[in-house]
Write a structure and sequence with these properties.
With 342 residues, the chain is of the alpha/beta class. The chain has eleven helices and 13 strands. The protein folds into two domains: 166 residues, 3-Layer(aba) Sandwich (Rossmann fold), CATH 3.40.50; 150 residues, Rossmann fold (3-Layer(aba) Sandwich). 44% of the residues lie in helices and 17% in strands. Helix 8 links the parallel strand 9 and strand 10.
Length: 342
């Protein structure tokens, strides 16, 4: 899958450029002191965040403000970047916490110095003002239903995800499990990642959940190991944006592309192309572009003293969608328009 390697290389270049632009005008050109300056902080490097960054920059352009997009390399780097934002006196921060339970202190420090909102993944125990995202448990259930549709006669399934200490990831995985096993919904349930789980009628078996800590090589190695240990596996589910492309690459190398059902999450071009080609049953998508746009719109309003931009209950719900061959083209067309160079 040369396309995947090319996209990964481009993302790496993007992060270097984004870092070099920090506090020098993330939207292009020298920073204007009179303009409010906001930070949009991701939880890693992925095509998902490239889409979100495009939304944040469009909002900055529309509202005549500055935005810097920061893509950290792990928990320690994200914490360090947040501390730097406090020191530099940023006018507002929208962050996707990597580990909200262990980042409460730094998040509250940010909240004490400027307006703080979370996006994509929440930190409800912090002093953030609002969360922009989706209900990840419900999104997981949608993904689980795609699995059942792909293998209606049942079968064995393996789940792949970056990490489980991230709140959105934990909820998404659990929703997917409950959707596959057709359980009564309960977002507080947490099944151990290494435990084999089965539906009441024993038609569906989830063999486990493998994590990769955002390591792309590990992500593909997890799939390769699964194919070796379970050669007759029925379906592979990738729950982070880069997992479905890794699954597809491993299947292609093993000569099993089209033989094992693939169900994805998010809207990487490789995943969407695989849906079109018939090699992926479907994917559940968020709206990262809107995450980016709404984050900057909300921070700009708060900076201007307009608290009416805060959603009721502190949650701006951006519902997820199932994408399959029936609605792929319309969705992909919109996505390309949103991310086209300006």
């Amino acid at each position: 899958m040369a396309t995947l390697k090319h996209r990964t290389s481009l993302l790496s270049v993007f992060v270097v450029v984004a870092s070099s632009l920090m506090f020098s005008g993330g939207c292009g050109g020298p920073s204007t002191p009179s303009k409010p300056h906001f930070a949009f902080v991701t939880n890693g490097v992925a095509s998902f965040w490239t889409i979100a960054a495009a939304g944040s920059r469009q909002a900055a352009k529309d509202l005549d403000v500055e935005v810097t997009v920061i893509m950290p390399d792990g928990l320690t780097d994200q914490t360090r970047k947040l501390e730097d934002l406090i020191t530099r006196g940023i006018d507002g921060v929208a962050v996707s916490p990597i580990n909200s339970k262990n980042q409460i202190d730094i998040l509250n420090k940010v909240a004490a110095s400027t307006n703080l909102i979370t996006q994509d993944s929440d930190a409800a125990g912090s002093n953030r003002l609002a969360y922009i995202g989706m209900d990840n448990y419900e999104a997981g259930i949608l993904c689980g239903k795609l699995v059942r549709d792909a293998i209606p006669d049942g079968g064995t399934v393996m789940l792949f995800i970056g990490r489980l200490d991230q709140e959105n990831a934990s909820l998404r995985r659990q929703g997917c499990i409950d959707g596959i096993l057709d359980r009564t919904p309960d977002s507080s349930r947490r099944d151990p990642p290494g435990e084999i789980l089965a539906s009441d009628d024993n038609k569906y078996q989830i063999l486990g959940t493998l994590t990769d800590r955002f390591d792309r090589a590990k992500s593909k190695a997890n799939v390769e190991d699964t194919l070796t240990r379970h050669p007759d596996i029925s379906a592979l589910v990738g729950l982070f944006v880069y997992n479905p492309p890794a699954i597809l690459e491993a299947l292609e190398r093993a000569g099993k592309l089209g033989e094992v059902e693939v169900i994805g999450f998010d809207e990487d071009d490789v995943t969407l192309q695989a849906i079109q080609d018939g090699n992926t049953a479907g994917t559940v998508v968020q709206d990262p572009y809107r995450y980016g746009y709404e984050s900057i719109r909300m921070l700009a309003g708060l900076h201007a003293g307009d608290r009416s931009v805060l959603p009721e209950g502190g949650f701006t719900n951006v519902p997820p969608r199932q994408i399959d061959r029936d609605n792929l083209q319309e969705f992909w067309k919109t996505l390309k328009e949103q991310t086209a160079p300006q």
